[in-house]
Amino acid sequence: MSITVKFFASLREQLKSPVSQIDSTGIATVADVWAAAADIPIPDHVLCSVNLDHCTAADPVKDGDEVAFFPPITGG
Amino acid sequence: MPATVLDTPFDPLQALKQHEQTLEAGSVGAAAHFIGTMRNHNEGVSVSSLTLEHYPAMTAKELAKIIDDAHAKWNLIDCLIVHRVGTMTPGDPIVLTAVWSAHRADAFEACRYLMEELKSRAPFWKKETLADGGDRWVEKNTDGYT
């Protein structure tokens, strides 16, 4: 009964003790995942994904999902 | 492999030549490509190296979707994306996007589409090491193909 959580780039460096696995009990949305896994309030302009697809913080999550948080994309 | 992420330097022209050998001889009427290379400066500051991080599984999925979307929008024979990750120095190629089609309008537009969508959708992040020894994440992104 868990959700995998990943943080990338500058966002990962901002967190003191990010959690990579959380108990999915009581977790309904991507925003709930952030609250359970990160030690700071969710910053503006954070992007997120569920199971490798872009999403919003209001999107639902379920047991077994992989949720990622990252700053604006700067490749290319 | 229509989209490849490499953690070692690559030669874009060699990659183009290799890929062209996989296409049906005589079928192509237009080829367009874009090569992005690392600059030694950004926003008025000298940059000595660049490190690209990515989210490997999502990058692969997103690059494949971008290519599928391009095929749905234009009449294309084939597409190729090659993108570097890891640490590179000024002059090193960062990205190659290429399109082969029967006619030039499809090739030009689809090549620009691949590049602009990649910059707004594929999860890569750049960290610059500056000439003075400091470092900083690149924060500016783009809106995608318009």
Brief characterization of the structure:
The complex is a heterodimer of chains A (76) and B (146). Helices cover 18% and strands 28% of the residues of chain A. Chain A is of the alpha+beta class.
Polypeptide structure, described:
The complex is a heterodimer of chains A (76) and B (146). Chain A has helices at 9-14, 30-37, and strands at residues 2-7, 21-23, 47-50, 53-55, 66-70. With 76 residues, chain A is an alpha+beta fold. Chain A has a five-stranded mixed beta sheet. In chain A, strand 3 (47-50) and strand 4 form a beta hairpin. The termini of chain A are far apart. Chain B has 146 residues and is of the alpha+beta class. Chain B contains three helices and nine strands, in the order βαβββαβββαββ. In chain B, the strands form two sheets. In chain B, strands 3, 4, 6, 8 and 9 form a five-stranded antiparallel beta sheet that branches. Chain B has a four-stranded mixed beta sheet with strand order 1-5-7-2, sandwiched between helices. The longest helix of chain B is centred in the middle third of the chain and has 18 residues, at 56-73. The model of chain B has no long low-confidence stretch (mean pLDDT 96). In chain B, helix 2 (56-73) runs antiparallel to helix 3. Chain B has one domain: Aldehyde Oxidoreductase, domain 3, CATH 3.90.1170.40. The A-B interface holds A 6, 8-10, 49, 52-54, 68, 70-76 and B 36, 52-55, 57-58, 61-62, 83, 94-95, 115, 118-127, 137-141.
